[in-house]
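Lab meeting, item 3. Inverse folding demo.
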């Protein structure tokens, strides 16, 4: 496996009195694309939000590039190099595509300039003067991803990037992720679309009842299908 960029050990998290994560362990290597698989409600999104520091009722160990992240304030997480694209996307509806792209601050060197972003997302270039309210769901998802790429983050975290999108847009997002991988970007995502994930991921974590119950590379998919059928129903 590649040199670890993100290391999560014995991570627990709560929503009030509800104990959601029960000792999550996972590692994401530099340049890897990792997908967390699991049914709805098993803790996948909570894992991402806890890593980002959005959920503060947590304990365990989170290390990013060797740095302890558990005590880092939420507003400093992005500056550490983590970029989060939530399922709801968070597009500012009254701002244009250009304005949405330019809104987040650059946190590190290596961010993608606008001309490269528009080459990667030609749909956005065509709509660069359009407000967020005029964008389709697929265009909003592209914009949410593109906005993070400009900031220079080292780990792109995606929550259900293909949820509710047309097949042609799903295919385009897959092509974007492959291009980002070629550029050395590290990606951690939650994804319900197993067939999409199987085309872009290097490794999988299988989650059930707030724990990681399996960890395997894409090459082991055929021999893992019985387990996936039981846990995911795919």
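The presenter then showed the designed sequence:
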């Amino acid at each position: 496996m590649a040199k670890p960029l993100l290391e999560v050990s014995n991570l627990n998290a709560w929503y009030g009195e509800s104990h959601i994560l029960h000792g999550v362990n996972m590692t994401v290597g530099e340049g890897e694309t990792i997908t967390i698989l699991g049914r709805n409600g098993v803790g996948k999104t909570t894992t991402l939000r806890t890593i980002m520091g959005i959920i503060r009722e947590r304990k365990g160990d989170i290390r990013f590039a060797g740095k302890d992240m558990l005590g880092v304030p939420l507003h400093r997480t992005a500056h550490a190099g983590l970029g989060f694209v939530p399922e709801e996307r968070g597009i500012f509806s009254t701002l244009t595509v250009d304005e949405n792209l330019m809104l987040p601050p650059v946190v590190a060197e290596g961010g993608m300039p606008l001309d490269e972003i528009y080459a990667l997302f030609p749909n956005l270039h065509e709509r660069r003067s359009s407000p967020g309210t005029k964008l389709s769901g697929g265009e909003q998802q592209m914009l949410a991803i593109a906005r993070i790429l400009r900031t220079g983050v080292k780990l792109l975290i995606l929550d259900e990037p293909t949820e509710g999108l047309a097949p042609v847009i799903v295919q385009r997002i897959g092509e974007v992720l492959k291009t980002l991988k070629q550029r050395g970007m590290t990606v951690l995502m939650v994804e319900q679309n197993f067939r999409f994930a199987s085309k872009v991921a290097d490794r999988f974590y299988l989650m059930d009842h707030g724990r990681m119950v399996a960890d395997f590379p894409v090459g082991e998919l055929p021999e893992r299908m019985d387990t996936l059928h039981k846990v995911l129903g795919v």
